[in-house]
Amino acid sequence: MRAVERCAFPVAGTTTCVVVGAGHAGLAVSRCLSERGIDHVVLERGEVANAWRRERWDSLRLLTPNWLSRLPGYRYQGTDPDGFMSMPEVIGFIDRYARAIAAPVYTGTRVTAVRPERDGYRVSTEHGDWRCRAVVIASGAFSVPVLPALAAAMPRDIECISARDYRRPDQLADGGVLVVGASATGLQLADEIRRSQRPVMLAVGEHVRMPRRYRGADIQRWLDAAGVLDERYDAVDDIARARRVPSPQLVGSVDGSTLDLNALAARGVELVGRVAGLRGRELQFSGSLRNVCALADLKQARLLETIDRWIDAAGTMPPGLMSCAPPQRPDPTRVRDAPRLRLDLGRGEIRTILWATGFRPDYSWLQVPVFDAKGRLRHDGGVVAAPGLYVMGLPFLRRRKSSFIHGAEDDARDLCAHLQEYLARGALRAQVA
User: Fold this and answer.
1) Are the beta carbons of 150 and 33 closer than 8 angstroms?
2) Does the global pTM surpass 0.90?
3) Average pLDDT for 390-404
């Protein structure tokens, strides 16, 4: 097996499997393929962990504690297991993993097309073509910002920026900032920008509220121990809905504090409803703020009740959960009696709009008929609707934890087992023929 190749011009050729993307998901697949003796290459448009290097803001930390950072055959080995990795630390973790497993990575190799052929696929790159029996798409779930249609109609004197292009507060124009979206990203960016002494308004839609700590331990300790994040995609009534649930309002801070709408409001962030329309220069907000906050509070209570029931039934606590504090519910989200419903963009109160409205994968290079009417990839737990084609790293792909770093291990093992069986069936058919 070749070591990581920092090669701008790989020699294309023939292999059994091509993995597209050398982030944590693609590398997890590479390790599992190697364990099964399946020849493969990993093609990466930039560098290993490219999205973490190029498409994240400077102060971002993982939402999961370090002890939970693991990949097949590799674990966090530092001295701060309860801390949260910064971006340089995440990049280092993934880069070391690629070297530790001797992943056959070709960097600087952008895939331009994947087309079906008689016995598999042709994977075209800027430097040549690969022919293979199978392809694993691990190019990431957060490639392209999803913006509402009215984003294109904003007045030209209002600076608009997506969360993918945001790096730090000082890149923004002077004056107030409207952050649109209140999942993990929107919450963290609103907090950081407010701490830079700018006026900040946060447009809040559907969100998932979650405390950083509960009953004496990090919330992720409970989610891991109780198996909440191990819930399988085929055990959920509406998996399409589950895959669209926003990321939880968590922050990986140095002090392990909880960041929620109450904390932001206490720091002077103005909460408004989701962006509902634009009439001339007047931005309109939904009047549903109180309702969506109440729904998030209700769902949080249900999650904590699930943890409470698990504690009552478990009896003996696993390591890290030996000291179990009594149940205590976070305060309900506080909403002003009359949140504003309109914002005149001509008054200069807001100079920048930061869109934290989600992301989608980029499959523009995938020339295989595997998309539904809305352009979404059709797959069953990562097994795409075409022979020998797989996908990794999407939200709730096979388990609730699928989009987290530690979620890649189980998914990669499952999909590589399926892939090996697929290859074996093909070999058997060839022998019979």
Assistant:
1) no
2) yes
3) 97
